């Protein structure tokens, strides 16, 4: 997304992309404001947010902000699955 928070390139529906861009741009601004008040001031380089439905990676840069919204399913095995797989070895 550009500096105004408007998506430049997306594979999502336009309305969904605008909604995500607006919400996460607000979060980015708040995180950056918090980090700038720390001693010494820090710069936001990457923000990762995981919800029940999405995992979001936000990387701000000078002219654009890269926002990746992905499906978090199948990223972690359940403990039962690990035990079942390890007993086969």
UniProtKB/TrEMBL annotation:
It holds the Pfam family Robl_LC7. Gene3D superfamilies: Dynein light chain 2a, cytoplasmic (3.30.450.30). Residues 2-71 form the Roadblock/LAMTOR2 domain. The gene is Dper\GL11036. Belongs to the GAMAD family. It comes from Drosophila persimilis. InterPro entries: Roadblock/LAMTOR2_dom. It comes from the Eukaryota. This is GL11036.
């Amino acid at each position: 997304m550009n500096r105004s928070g408007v998506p430049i390139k997306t594979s999502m529906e336009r309305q969904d992309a605008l909604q995500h861009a607006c919400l996460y741009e607000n979060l980015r601004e708040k995180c950056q404001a918090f980090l700038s008040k720390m001693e010494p001031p820090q710069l936001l380089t990457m923000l990762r947010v995981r919800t029940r439905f999405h995992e979001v990676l936000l990387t701000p840069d000078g002219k654009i902000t890269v926002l990746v919204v992905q499906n978090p399913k199948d990223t972690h095995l359940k403990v039962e699955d690990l035990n079942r797989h390890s007993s086969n070895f």
